[in-house]
Amino acid sequence: MEIPREGLREEATAATPYFIIQDGKALLIEKKRGVGEGLFNGPGGKVEGEESPEEAAIREAVEETKVRPEEVEKVSELEFVFGDDPFMFVHVFTADSFSGTPEETEENRMVPNR
Predict the structure, then answer these.
(1) pTM of the predicted model, to two decimals?
(2) Full DSSP string of 5-33
(3) Which letter does DSSP use for residue 53 in this model?
(4) What percent of the chain has pLDDT over 70?
(5) 86 located within any domain
(6) Residue 20 lies in a domain
(7) Is residue 57 included in any domain, yes or no?
(8) Which of 88, 90, 99, 32 is nearest to 61 (CA)?
(9) What's the total number of domains in the chain?
(10) Phi, psi (5° rounding) for residue 59?
(11) Which residues, at least 6 apart from 25, have a Cβ–Cβ distance to it below 8 Å?
């Protein structure tokens, strides 16, 4: 079944995973609750109000890991559609470094990076 692409961005929830890669290692989290509970991912979440996807990605990284990404770059866009429901339109970002020390939060555990 072909899903119409027009209007997908407007109807879907905008979200932002963030992959911070420093010295060849990715900073990952394990979600404690909500969408993705128990799974590993980069920090991220929904775009709020009038903020840009990049602003949302940085805010979410700080909230979920207590670190601030540096040298931010948008690398991809993903569309998640279930049946006829445009579920999420995702803006994917990376950063080459961060400032601060990663910490566990109410929402996430830090994944050990070997």
Answers:
(1) 0.81
(2) -TTHHHHSEEEEEEEEEETTEEE-EEESS
(3) H
(4) 86
(5) yes
(6) yes
(7) yes
(8) 99
(9) 1
(10) -60, -45
(11) 113
Neighbours of 76 (CB within 10 A): 10
Burial label, 37 (beta-carbon count in 10 A; 0-12, 13-18, 19+)? exposed
Judge whether 7 lies within some domain. no
CATH of the domain at 59: 3.90.79.10
What six digits make up the tokens of 80? 């998640």
- Candidates 12, 19, 57; CA nearest to 41 is 19
Q: 70 is in which domain, residue-wise?
A: 14-110
CA dist 31 and 52 (Å) reads 23
- What number is the average pLDDT over the span 45-59? 92
- Of 5 and 80, the structure prediction assigns the larger pLDDT to 80
